[in-house]
Design brief:
Pfam families: EFP (PF01132), EFP_N (PF08207), Elong-fact-P_C (PF09285). The chain is mainly β. Helix content is about 0%, strand content about 50%. The longest helix is centred in the middle third of the chain and has 4 residues, at about 95-100. The two termini are about 40 Å apart.
Length: about 190
């Protein structure tokens, strides 16, 4: 796999260990794109040590052959998240470290979560591309506004904050992009 093909939540092998990618940042020093570099932030599995790599677009990385299984969130077991396979009802126990960056997008009754497995051990979780969350706390709309598009922070039912348009109120259900954390629209 080339560095320019790496995406968030990809699992890679590096120096004999497995890593899950949390962030990919592209930087092109010139307008023509010469010497484009990719800064890849990844965390080791399962202990969560952070590693940053800076690579050129055509540098090779070793992708890991893993199995992805669709699952739904069942319940919390202490600090662990328990997901159930939608086909064979196998339970996958994922530690808080594995789901740390996406725990605000984990809710019951939602389809589209994928558990990544290496040798039947769950090592990563990918959420659906978007999810519907309810706003529990946001400031009221400012009156006498202008024609500009203003946003304000809103606290979701899962505890994360999302920037929403000024006219959105408490109790509103909104769709949130799980990759960017951005407001997509009302439900």
């Amino acid at each position: 796999m080339k560095a320019n093909e790496v995406k968030k939540h990809t699992v890679l092998a590096h120096n004999g260990l497995y890593y899950v990618v949390r962030e990919v940042e592209k930087s092109a020093p010139t307008a023509r794109g010469g010497n484009t570099t990719y800064r890849i932030q990844m965390f080791s599995i399962p202990d969560g040590h952070k590693v940053d790599l800076s690579l050129r677009a055509d540098d090779d990385l070793e992708s890991v052959d893993l199995r992805k299984r669709e699952a739904t969130f069942s319940y919390m077991d202490g600090e662990d998240y328990v997901f159930m396979d939608v086909e064979d009802y196998t339970q996958y126990i994922l530690s808080a470290k594995i789901v740390d960056d996406i725990k605000g997008y984990i809710i019951e009754g939602v389809e589209g979560y994928y558990v990544s497995l290496i040798d039947e051990n769950p090592i990563a979780l990918a959420p659906p591309q978007s999810i519907v969350l309810e706003i529990v706390d946001t400031a009221p709309e400012l009156k006498g506004g202008s024609a500009t598009k203003r946003t304000k922070p809103a606290r979701m039912s899962t505890g994360i904050d999302v920037q929403v348009p000024d006219y959105i109120e408490n109790g509103t259900k909104i769709r949130v992009n799980t990759e960017t954390g951005e407001f997509m629209g009302r439900e």
